[in-house]
Fold THAP domain-containing protein 5.
Amino acid sequence: MPSSCFAPGCKTGYRSEVKKLKAEGKKTPCMFRPPKDKIEEWNRRIPRSDRSLGEKDVLCALHFVPEDIITTWEHTGPDGKKAIIEREKPCLLPTAVPCIFPNIPSYLSNPIKKRKAPTKREPTIQKRCNRERSQQDGVPDGETAPLPTVDPEFPDFPMSPSNLPNDPSPPETCIYNVQPDISSIKLPGTMWGVHTSPELTIFCHLDALRQADKCVEFRQENPDPTVTLRGKVVMVEQGIKNKDDVEVMLQNVHAIRLCSGASPGKFSSACSTQLHAENPTPRRTNTTRCKECQKYRDTLQKRQRRANARATRAVPKMTPLARCTQQKRRLQKKVQKLETVLGETMERTVVIRKTT
Ligand SMILES: [Zn+2]
Ligand SMILES: [Zn+2]
């Protein structure tokens, strides 16, 4: 089981973070594994494009609304008294979905608006049992009659999560169709355009090189549009209910500052595409690069400097005296060579003269 949280930018479970929290006297947030039938849905909610959530991944409690996390057992004893026991390991409501991602811009993370839960909740099994009994005994509903003995069918044990009543309020789903509003939606700038087909609506923005760098894609079967920055899916926007929501979202996407890369055309493979508050105290102010690309640029520059240094070392500058000395040595070598050749030739001449 992976020990660190799957959410982008979240450090829960990192050794350094555990140490830090311990030093501050805080508890590490608990971890939850996705229920098998919810992996797809959780995946859609998590703004992470490099990897998709697997059965063995975990998410920490920071990404759920507190109402979705059950931290106690509510237990009605045989005497009708309610006891609240702290759970050793908190668990999630069956309807819980991750919706809070504090390490990405806040407008990219919005808790799903849930319908208000009905004030009258389904009673627990124990309570229902009591009520049935009290109705049989003629005791009005709502009052619990004391039980004379421990019911053998409901022994004294805490309820397992599967016994928990299902949350009767499923997340609100609003199917908003953007197509009828297209002509009246105000685009955030002149470089924005919209493309439509029967099942697809794409708002996109062109950069200085006339390439689409920001896209917002609505699919007919899915009310939540996908935001893509330079081809990377960065998030799925939720809670779009009308034309105004679309305009606000487009404005937000328009305001995202994109990373300018390490150098023209070069981006770090870990480029986070957008510039945001990941680094509140940047080394350089007015930076136009993400942290990864800045690091990559520094590496490229260091490499270039080293290469330059090597090139200058290859042709060292010489003093005039050294240059003359070197020339003299070379010429002396040449003279020596020529002298030996001359000697050999003279010897050969003598031999030839004798024979003829
Ligand atoms: Zn986390
Ligand atoms: Zn970058």
Notes: The longest helix spans residues 320-355. Confidence is low (pLDDT under 50) at residues 112-118, 120-174, 277-282. The chain has three domains: 15-163, 173-258, 262-336.
